[in-house]
Amino acid sequence: MGKPAVVWNPSFLGYDLGGDHPLNAVRLDLTIRLATGLGVLDGVDLVAPEPAADADIERVHDAGYLAAVRAAPVSGWDVGHGLGTADNPVFARMHEASALVVGGSLAAARRIADGSACRAVNIAGGLHHAMRDHAAGFCVYNDCAVAISWLLDNGFDRIAYLDVDVHHGDGVQAAFYDDPRVLTVSLHQSPFSLWPGTGLPAESGAAGAEGTAVNLALPPGTRDQAWLRAFDAVVPSLLRTFRPQVLVTQCGVDTHREDPLADLALSVDGHAAVYRRFRDLAEEVAEGRWLALGGGGYELIRVVPRSWTHLLATVLDRDLDPDTPVPADWVDHVARLAPDRRLPASMTDGAPTDVTAWGGVTTDAVDAAVRDTRHAVFPLHGLDPDDPRD
User: Fold this and answer.
1) Which of 92, 184, 256, 360 is the most buried (most CB within 10 A)?
2) Keywords of this protein's UniProt record, alphabetized (predicted)?
3) Is 311 among the domain residues?
4) Exposed, middle or buried by CB within 10 Å (0-12, 13-18, 19+), for 376?
């Protein structure tokens, strides 16, 4: 298979929900600037996507919903379908900007499918909350689900979707809840303490697809080492049993301890450790095929650019030393945008990411969450939920 692919076009910045909205496109621009400044993208031919066609978006969305999205910018605010809300405000060329994000994820999927890339990444993607007939959680069209649906029609019949956003990957789960060809795994903050209020372990797949929806709901305050222990106790065993042909990951970074919208406590170092796990698992179970998408992340300056630069570096096998200094020209640029902000000096938060393996005990809330998830789905895959070796 070919070299890893990076999908990018400055037109992605047109997905603009407004200057005061948490999902500010500046996070994408600052990520690309940082990755470029550190040499991560040296010699990489960036893939410029085309907007997705209606037929592809309608793989997971109703035609009437697309018509509403198109009409919304000229028809006023009361358009229904979750549009015109504080979370999902109407903006100019909303359909076109949203279709371009979907097109970016499709471009990445196509390169994996035709063998021209072993891995591909679209940091503008990961809009995992959009439902069949309505917008939700800052997401207009669900590029994750569209890309998975396209892959299912183009040579693949087992796909694993791993979602590490702090919010439950509800839209993708809903799209494939009754499809045994897709394993959806979401690690997120407990729905008892965070929107959208779904993602309990008991949500494990519809009849005929039992065990193909996996939810690991973690307590507020979970830090890197406990989060990674939970991941290791659930995800690898399921992937080794399911044997996906492609690994699709939603790499939201709103799990960071500085994120303003949620309450987990990961670091940039923890995020980098997660990406390395994705890469290793793709190599082990999916012949290296890895489609990486962005997602949430609302600490726009200190967190998202560094975390997703680590993601780009991992996809490209250009892993960064955590102590790598942040380039002076990037700091100068950001200082002009946000003169009162404290800026990071390097690519690390200095957080430990070593892990003590889960041993079957439930001595704290994270271990109890692991137990609940394993008991909900491991028997459906022929695995022993109480045996740490499974």
Assistant:
1) 184
2) Acetoin catabolism
3) yes
4) buried
Other C-beta atoms lying within 10 Å of the C-beta of residue 357: 9
Report which residue type is found at 187: L
**Segments in 76-169 forming alpha helices (H):** 94-113, 143-152
Computed over its alpha carbons, how large is the radius of gyration of the chain?
20
Tell me how far apart the alpha carbons of residues 125 and 251 are, in angstroms, rounded to a whole number: 9
Residue 203 lies in a domain: yes
Q: Is 129 a catalytic residue?
A: yes
| Residue 291 structural domain | 5-357
For 181-216, the pLDDT digits (tens) are 999 999 999 999 999 999 999 999 999 999 999 999
- In the predicted model, is pLDDT for residue 76 greater than 80? no
CB 336 within 8 Å of CB 210: no
CATH code assigned at 211: 3.40.800.20
> Structurally, how many domains does the chain consist of?
1
Residue 79 clears pLDDT 90, i.e. is over it? no
In a domain, 320, yes or no: yes
> What is the reported pLDDT for 51?
98
Residue 207 is classified by DSSP as T
